[in-house]
Structures are given as C-alpha cells and as structure tokens.
Amino acid sequence: GSLFRTLSNRIRYFTPKEIANLHCFPLNYQFPEQITTRQAYSLLGNSLSVFVVGVLLENLFERS
Questions:
Q1: Which residues contact 2 (CB under 8 A, 6 or more apart)?
Q2: Residue spans of alpha helices (H) in the chain
Q3: GO terms for biological process (predicted)?
Q4: Neighbours of 11 (CB within 10 A)
Q5: CA-CA distance, 45 to 37, in Å (whole number)?
Q6: What's the burial of 1, exposed, middle or buried (CB within 10 Å: 0-12/13-18/19+)?
Q7: Which residues, in sequence order, are bridge partners of residue 11?
Q8: Cα gap 31→16, rounded to integer Å
Q9: What is the pLDDT of residues 12-51, one digit of tens each?
Q10: What is the DSSP secondary structure assignment for residue 9, as one 8-state letter?
Q11: Which 3 state secondary structure label does DSSP give 3?
Q12: CB pairs under 8 A, 24+ apart, for 45-50?
C-alpha cells in the first residue's frame, strides 16, 4: 500500500477505500465481502484512474 504522513507526523498506509477514492471510484463503491484487504490493495494497484487516462488521451489526440 501507499504511505501517508499524519498530522502527528506518524506514517500510516492509505486504506483501500482511500485509494479507490483517489482512483475516482464511486464514493459508495464496496469490494465484495470475499475480497480480503490484501486482495483489494492488489486489485487497486493494478487499476488505472479512468479520469486520468481520459485526460491523457485527450491531450494525445489534440496533439495529433
């Protein structure tokens, strides 16, 4: 997982929910119950932000 520094200068990992939010998943998105936290981290690590990919593709097509 990714690291996050708190206000008290401690380090903690982002939760899968926080990472999903950064990837623009819907706020009410939930993994199925059988998915473990480790699996959720793995799945999110292999995902792409559709919003970011869209912006990148727009820029690519504008330049061609």
A1: 13, 14, 19
A2: 16-22, 37-45, 50-63
A3: methylation
A4: 8
A5: 12
A6: middle
A7: 5
A8: 9
A9: 888 999 999 988 899 999 999 999 999 999 999 999 888 8
A10: S
A11: strand
A12: 47/23, 48/23, 49/22, 49/23, 49/24, 50/24
What do you get for the CA distance between the two ends of the chain, in Å? 36
**Which residue from 12, 33, 23, 9 is spatially nearest to 1, judged by alpha carbons?**
12
Instruction: Tell me which H or E stretch contains 18.
Output: helix 16-22
Asked if residues 19 and 1 have their Cβ atoms less than 8 Å apart, the reply is yes
Q: What is the pLDDT of residue 8?
A: 81
Domain range list for the chain: 3-63
Q: Which CATH number fits domain 3-63: 3.90.120.10, 3.30.70.20, 3.40.50.12780, 3.40.1390.10?
A: 3.90.120.10
